[in-house]
């Protein structure tokens, strides 16, 4: 019986075989297309969720329109002198007025924003949670007719290992021993203290986001926190890695998608410092050097500037693993004391 069935199959015409093969291929192709459609639908649902957030927020009655809500993020790695620059920008913002003469509502480092961006103050909702974004923007920029300016300056990286303030993605000890490329590819590092790409995507549609990027020479930046992360070597690894993370973000996101304007501007901290020193020099040229007290203080100030430059060269030597002669440092201390005493 089985032999008879086999013989019957052998005599199936070529056209029938071809038709049968086409049916099988159609079933396989249809299954593959269905799977791709399911995957595309999942992606479209994720994109639509972000678009739905935008539409619902734009209709929220208690939130100010986009042109009256500005978030200024002073962006830089740890040690870029945030604490020195932030008060300057804050003071300038407080003196701004709108077209009607009304002062801006300025908030510095508001709790609501830090809670939403970094997960601090026991905030458990994720960064892209719709209710979190709505609550944050309503709190920061109420629809009261004022122009609201929010200033944030948390550095990259931020906080300490085991920081009690709490972060969604806390600082990691293993970053000390990672290369710059490894840190850049680390998911935790990309999201610490906040994922800048998601921040711009989620909040930039209802608030004008601007970044003021602080640039400071690398050695000065590392030297400002030499004892952190187990010492200068581990700390320098973190700074190099986060410098590359910020550089990649700034290269990719240079334009505001809504207005088409620049998303960020850079401030060279060393130029501000050089202007300060230049002012000190111009002011010093008018000093009557017969007033020995002023002359002594001015000279010691100039000498301190020189020592700052020397300290940088010593830091270079340390980072290169070179030896620094103790006799040289001792001689410089003696010369400084003698010169300040003479003047």
Can you walk through the features of this model?
The structure is a single chain. The protein is an alpha/beta fold and 343 residues long. The protein has helices spanning 2-10, 14-58, 82-94, 111-118, 130-140, 180-185, 187-190, 196-203, 218-223, 232-252, 269-284, 292-319, 326-342, and strands at 69-75, 105-108, 148-152, 208-215, 264-268. The chain has a five-stranded parallel sheet. Helix 12 (292-319) runs antiparallel to helix 13 (326-342). The chain is globular and about 65 Å long.
User: What is the end-to-end distance?
Assistant: 121 Å
Main β-sheet description: 5 strands, parallel
Assembly state here? single chain
Which stretches are low in confidence, meaning pLDDT under 50 for 5 or more residues running?
31-51, 53-59, 279-299, 314-343
Please report the total strand number as a whole number: 5
Tally of separate helices: 13
Strand order of the largest sheet: 2-3-1-4-5
Helix content: 55-70%
Structural class: alpha/beta
If you average the pLDDT, what whole number results? Answer: 74
Radius of gyration: 31 Å
Order of helices and strands: HHEHEHHEHHHEHHEHHH
Strand content: 5-15%
Which descriptor suits the 3D outline?
Answer: globular
């Amino acid at each position: 019986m089985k032999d008879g069935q086999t013989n019957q199959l052998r005599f199936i015409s070529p056209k029938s075989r071809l038709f049968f093969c086409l049916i099988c291929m159609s079933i396989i192709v249809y299954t593959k297309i269905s799977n791709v459609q399911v995957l595309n639908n999942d992606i479209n649902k994720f994109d639509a969720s972000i678009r739905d957030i935008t539409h619902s927020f734009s209709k929220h009655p208690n939130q100010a329109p986009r042109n009256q809500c500005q978030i200024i993020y002073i962006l830089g790695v740890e040690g870029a002198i945030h604490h020195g620059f932030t008060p300057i920008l804050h003071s300038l913002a407080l003196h701004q007025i709108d077209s009607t003469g009304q002062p801006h509502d300025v908030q510095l480092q508001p709790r609501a924003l830090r809670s939403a961006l970094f997960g601090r103050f026991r905030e458990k909702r994720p960064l892209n949670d719709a209710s979190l974004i709505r609550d944050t923007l309503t709190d920061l920029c109420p629809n009261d007719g004022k122009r609201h300016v929010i200033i944030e300056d948390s550095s990259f990286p931020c906080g300490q290992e085991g920081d009690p303030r709490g972060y969604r993605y806390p600082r990691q000890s293993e970053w000390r021993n990672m290369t710059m490329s490894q840190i850049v590819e680390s998911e935790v590092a990309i999201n610490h203290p906040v994922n800048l790409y998601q921040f711009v995507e989620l909040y930039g549609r209802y608030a004008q986001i601007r970044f003021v990027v602080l640039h400071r020479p690398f050695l000065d930046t590392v030297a400002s926190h030499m004892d952190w992360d187990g010492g200068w070597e581990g700390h320098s690894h973190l700074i190099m890695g986060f410098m590359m993370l910020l550089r990649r973000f700034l290269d990719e996101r240079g334009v505001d998608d809504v207005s088409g304007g620049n998303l960020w501007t850079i401030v060279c901290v060393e130029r501000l410092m050089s202007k300060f020193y230049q002012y000190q020099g111009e002011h010093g040229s008018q000093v009557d050097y017969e007033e020995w007290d002023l002359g002594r203080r001015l000279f010691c100030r100039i000498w301190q500037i020189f020592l700052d430059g020397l300290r940088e060269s010593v830091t270079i030597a340390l980072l290169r693993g070179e030896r620094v002669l103790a006799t040289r440092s001792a001689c410089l201390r003696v010369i400084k004391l003698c010169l300040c005493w003479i003047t």
